[in-house]
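Following the same procedure, backbone shapes were mapped to integers, yielding the entry below.
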Amino acid sequence: VHVVESGGGLVQPGGSLRLSCAASGFTFSSYAVGWFRQAPGKEREIVARITYRGSVSGTYYADAVKGRFTISRDNAKNSVYLQMNSLKPEDTAVYYCNVGDYWGQGTQVTVSS
């Protein structure tokens, strides 16, 4: 089983990034997938989550990212994406993908001028 995040980097405030989470080794479409983040000195927190039931996806967003972030999934590619717009310095963190009991290694997002 592998869960791998990518797409992090350094971006200026107001900029955008698109994170990707690729999973393999299990039936991806059966799982809800969540994006979490952990900033230095803080606990890991949920950012967004996407479920999949009967061809319909449901989504959840933390209040801090509502209206700026969009989570989506492509079950055919065993992938989930997090489109992050209007980034703020407080979005700086390591972002992790969670699928069931599995976590990726994280990808660093830094928002700074």
